[in-house]
From TrEMBL:
GO terms for molecular function: MAP-kinase scaffold activity. GO terms for biological process: adrenergic receptor signaling pathway; positive regulation of canonical NF-kappaB signal transduction; regulation of Rho protein signal transduction. It comes from the Eukaryota. Coiled coil: none annotated. This is A-kinase anchoring protein 13. The gene is AKAP13. PANTHER family: A-KINASE ANCHOR PROTEIN 13 (PTHR13944:SF18), AGAP007712-PA (PTHR13944). The lineage of its organism: Eukaryota, Metazoa, Chordata, Craniata, Vertebrata. GO terms for cellular component: actin cytoskeleton; membrane.
């Protein structure tokens, strides 16, 4: 088995193609699954058969940058699940994840507007903006934020108001840009 690509961002959501070696191929009525086994999390994903030697799946989101074991498992009615092949896969931090972390740590910080000037100078071409926006949103959902985190930052002058009702993520993003 060969995985292509061999890495995914921490937030996952990219297509992973599984190329089966000749010895990995099995009968047509077999269902394949991929099990991503990391140090603290395990993910099981279904696959879609593209051809007799090619499968596809969507990479799951993961909790940390690390190399995980990917097991290709097969299941056939009436038989136990068996491991067909095994390969390493890497979860990595990318620019979208970095941007999401920056936004989360800059909540309530008006100086964060300097980041927009940075994006103006080194940002993606205009065609990639929508893609970057989607990736940052996915990365933001996978961030580990403290329970007391909110989009307004840590301003204590709000005295007991429900901070989550005061500003949405969208409004936070608009305020930065």
């Amino acid at each position: 088995m060969k995985l292509n690509p061999q890495q995914a961002p921490l937030y996952g959501d990219c297509v992973v193609t599984v190329l089966l070696a000749e010895e990995d191929k099995v009968e047509d009525d077999v269902v394949f699954y991929l099990v991503f086994s990391g140090s603290t999390l395990h993910h099981c994903t279904s696959t879609r058969k593209v051809s007799s030697d090619t499968l596809e799946t969507i990479a799951p989101g993961h909790d940390c940058c690390e190399t995980v074991k990917v097991l290709l498992c097969a299941s056939k009615e009436g038989l136990p699940v068996f491991v067909v092949a095994e390969e390493d896969f890497h979860f990595v931090q990318d620019e979208a994840y970095d941007a999401a972390q920056f936004l989360a740590t800059s909540a309530g910080n008006q100086q964060a507007l300097n980041f927009t000037r940075f994006l103006d100078r080194s940002g993606p071409p205009s065609g990639d903006v929508n893609s970057l926006d989607e990736k940052v949103a996915l990365a933001f959902r996978h961030l580990k934020l403290p329970a007391e985190w909110n989009v307004l930052g840590t301003d204590q002058t709000l005295h007991g108001e429900n901070l989550y009702d005061l500003q949405t993520y969208f409004q936070f993003g608009i305020r930065l840009f």
